[in-house]
Every structure is written in C-alpha cells, then in structure tokens.
Specification:
Layout: H1 26-39, E1 50-56, E2 59-65, H2 70-81, E3 90-94, E4 98-101, E5 123-124, E6 139-142, E7 155-156, E8 160-163, H3 170-195, H4 197-205, H5 209-225, H6 235-241, E9 256-262, H7 264-270, E10 287-292
Antiparallel strand pairs: 1-2, 1-10, 2-9, 3-4, 4-8, 5-7, 6-8, 6-9
Helix pairs in contact: 1-2, 3-5
C-alpha cells in the first residue's frame, strides 16, 4: 500500500498505490478523536482552529489546523501528543509540487529504502471543505491511496503533505478547468455504465448493436450534463494560484485540513534538496517534535 498522492490529471506521480487499507469503524475513529481533544487543554481560535509547531532538522514550521475539518484536526493533535511523528522523515519531496511526511516506517528506514507504505491500521473519513480550503501554496493536506482502491477518498491516518506548487497564468487555469470538466464527465459516464450493466449485458447477448448505440448515446448525454456542475475556480483560488501558486489539479481530490502560517521559507528550502529516483531526500530530514500550542 502506497500512501502517495493518487495519480493526478496533469502530473504523473511515481509509486501511486494499488493496495488496500485496514480500517476502523467510523464511530471508533470519531471516538478516538473526541477523547484526545477532551484530555488536554488546547489553544483554539474563535473558529476552533488549532496551532501546532512542527520542529524539523531544517527549522520549525507553524501550522494552523482548521476547525471545520475536526476529524483530521483532532487526529493530527492526538498523534502529535502521542509522539507518533517524532523521528519520522520527509520521505517524498518534489520541487514545485509538495513535501510529504508522516510515514511511521520512516523512523527506522535504512538509506535508500523506499518509503510511503507505512500506516497506523486505520484511515480518516474525507472532509472536503471545497472550495473554501484548496491547494494553495502552504496548504496542509492528507495523503491517501488511489481512487481505484479507495473510492471514498479516505485519508491516511498519519501521512500528510505541504503544498509548494507553482504560479499559473489565467489561461492555464482555464485549460485546467476544461480538463477537470472532462474528468467529471468521464467519471459520470463510468458510474452510469455500472448502473446499466445488466441492460448492457442483455443487449450484448442479443447482439443488439443498435440498442447498444442508443444506450451509449443516452449515457453520454446524461454524463455531459454533469459538466455544468464541474469545478470552476473561485476568485480567491484564481488570485492565489496566479500570485503565490499551488497545485490546483489536486483540488477536491484530497482533504485540505490546515495551512502553514510561519516558516514557509523552511519548506521552500526543503523542497530544493537533492533526492533519489523515488523522490526521497538523499540526506534525511527529520521531524523532531510536533507541539500543540496550549
């Protein structure tokens, strides 16, 4: 199982996962999150955001965890307090894209060992608050396995990434919107195919090509109607993506649950380090401690 970013539309990522994941029931996960938040006093804002400091061998990065993604927020706080992140590596670094960390197996990894498959035996339900939270530079999001094995887009319990991305011009964003609309149509068509599978098999058994053609045209038309509701970038997204940058093609695909508020210069330096063919830094970059401000 590979807790990478699933293969995206515009960027072929190495090592996308094909494996499954063991899970806990959703109510068990929610219970764990509630227990962790009730055990300690935590500094929150009026929006129930929580501030955490990620101390690394490159410096300290201050992150805000969003109050409106409480499952991911509380899970991250719980793992921080349990020391789960201490000693883990930034095991996947891709310049102008993102830096990824949180694989528990990375604590004891040998030089050159391929990482990204470690987990904690459960996943987090997706919490998409889109388009309010999107993949601007500095966004904190949860890694996950690909749609093929994870259609609900549940998040890894521990692995996360911080967006570095790049700046886009408006024409490129418009082109990306068209591609996102095409993907939406394709997904809708495949879903309709599944709904009509028995009818399709019946037409095939009867060698009714005219019937198959008519049904195909019907499904294509229905799928194309979904393009009207496909993602369109908001003015806030356009402003961010054309100034500070980000990774817009990941929007709506992964749970964004926080953002860097101090120390983005450290992440910018981190993304420039030399890496091997699996995008692992040649020199280990460790998380020394994650501290919840209280």
């Amino acid at each position: 199982m590979k807790w990478g970013l699933a293969c995206a539309l515009l960027l072929a990522m190495a090592g996308c996962g094909n494996g499954g994941a063991s899970t806990l029931p959703a109510d068990k996960e929610s219970k764990n999150s509630k227990e962790s938040s009730n055990t300690h006093q935590t500094m929150t804002t009026e929006n129930n955001d929580i501030i955490v400091d990620i101390q690394t061998t490159k410096g300290t990065v201050k992150v805000k965890l969003y109050g409106d993604t409480p499952g991911h927020r509380d899970n991250f706080v719980k793992l921080a307090r349990e020391g789960v992140y201490e000693g883990t590596l930034f095991h996947r670094v891709i310049k102008d894209f993102m830096v990824q960390a949180g694989d528990p197996d990375s604590k004891t990894a040998k030089p050159g060992q391929m990482l990204g498959s470690g987990d904690l035996g459960y996943t987090q339900p997706a919490e998409f608050v889109y388009p309010k939270h999107f993949h601007k530079k500095g966004a904190l999001a949860a890694a996950r396995t690909g749609d093929q094995v994870n259609p609900e887009r549940r998040s890894s319990a521990s692995q996360f990434y911080i967006v570095t991305g790049k700046v886009y011009n408006d024409s490129t964003l418009k082109q990306m919107e068209r591609q996102m609309q095409m993907q939406k149509v394709q997904e809708a068509f495949y879903a309709l195919q599944d709904q009509y599978r028995s009818k399709i098999m019946e037409l095939r058994r009867n060698k009714d090509q005219a019937g198959l053609d008519a049904l195909r045209d019907q499904l294509v038309k229905e799928a194309e109607q979904t393009a009207a509701s496909a993602p369109v970038f908001t003015e806030e997204q356009r402003q961010a993506y054309t100034t500070v940058g980000g990774t817009p093609h990941l929007d709506g695909q992964y749970t964004v649950f926080g953002e860097v508020i101090e120390g983005m210069d450290i992440i910018d330096e981190l993304q420039k380090v030399a890496t091997d063919r699996n995008d692992r830094p040649n020199e280990d970059i460790k998380i020394l401690k994650v501290t919840v401000e209280a």
